[in-house]
Specification:
Length: 327
């Protein structure tokens, strides 16, 4: 049974991430933040033992006593050491995500905000998923989630992410780009944009300058954009990546389609590294996440910047409200 009706504020599940990384300390900081507490009811999913150990290590007496903590027991939690990759840490990180998904399906929480996990620890634990998106898709029964970056007023969607650059270039085909433009348009409408203005990043420098270096723009990107426009979607022809993100920041586009991982990541993180948030759409529940790693070298030292975790939680509230207003 949903608890949504019992609270004026949305219940946001906050997964602790890899317990050996910076996740525990940035979660502790985020759930103590007045803006976060004013916007939502935080529900931390992780290990109470780890949270208390981390709080002592960073000089905090304990996590806020009135915050709900769903403690998930996993094997070897007492052997986890901050800053060290281990199968125990990977097992715990996966269990927290799985529990959050179960609570979402049971309508016990309204959205999920995730702290970072470590791919090597997941692999050592035998987890058959490379990262958050893949786990969420499996546990929530969604075949093809949609990734969006949010940094300030700029929104970036990714045609490809966890592919080699060589494979990403080969993936850029007319039908795939066309289908993706339509999905992005639908997602933006769901977020409250009646006719979103979509900027399409080019693959080659200067959008290939009419085919002087590369033909992907002429063969695949321009035809895909033209087909989308025939259906009433406001999508640009491919624009050089050195310009299209700046144009979005100036307000000329509501979102940008990035063709590969670093193309969009560099633009977002250069604009604001700590306030860049990942949002996963196309799931039964909205999910946001920090867009940095576990930072094992500074874990549990009290120096990790919690701004991205706070921003991820607040962005979840904002996006969820936009989605609800459309329904």
């Amino acid at each position: 049974m949903s608890n949504t009706s019992c609270f004026q504020k949305p219940r946001i599940a906050i997964t602790m991430g890899d317990p050996a990384g910076v996740g525990p300390e940035i979660v502790i900081s985020a759930i103590s933040d007045t803006d976060v507490l004013a916007a939502c009811v935080p529900v931390v999913i992780g290990s109470r033992v780890i949270l208390e150990r981390c709080a002592r290590a960073v000089g905090v007496a304990h996590p806020p006593a009135d915050i709900e903590v769903v403690s998930v027991d996993t094997q070897g939690i007492d052997r986890i050491e901050p800053g060290r990759v281990s199968p125990e840490a990977g097992m715990a990180a996966e269990a927290y995500v799985r529990k959050a998904c179960l609570m979402a399906l049971e309508r016990e929480i309204d959205a999920i905000a995730t702290a970072p996990i470590n791919k090597e620890s997941l692999r050592l634990a035998g987890v058959p998923y490379i990262g958050h998106t893949e786990m969420l898709a499996a546990y929530l029964g969604s075949s093809d989630p949609l990734t969006m970056f949010v940094t300030g007023s700029m929104r970036i969607f990714f045609l490809t992410r966890h592919m080699s650059l060589r494979d990403a270039v080969d993936y850029v085909k007319n039908d795939r780009v066309y289908t993706f433009i339509k999905r992005v348009n639908s997602a933006m409408v769901e977020l409250g944009f009646d006719r979103p203005r979509i900027g399409l990043a080019a693959l080659n420098p200067h959008a290939s300058d009419g085919g002087q270096f590369g033909d992907e723009e002429e063969k695949h990107l321009k035809p895909a954009a033209a087909m989308a426009r025939e259906e009433g979607i406001d999508c640009s022809d491919p624009i050089g990546a050195d310009s299209v993100f700046h144009m979005a920041l100036e307000g000329r586009f509501d979102c940008v389609i990035s063709l590969y991982h670093d193309q969009g990541h560099i633009a977002a993180k250069t604009r604001d590294f700590y306030r860049t948030v990942t949002a996963t759409l196309g799931l039964p529940v909205l999910r946001t996440s920090v867009d940095h790693g576990t930072a094992l070298d500074i874990a549990w030292k009290g120096i990790a910047n919690p701004v991205s975790m706070k921003t991820a939680i607040l962005t979840a509230v904002t996006l969820m409200e936009k989605q609800r207003s459309r329904r």
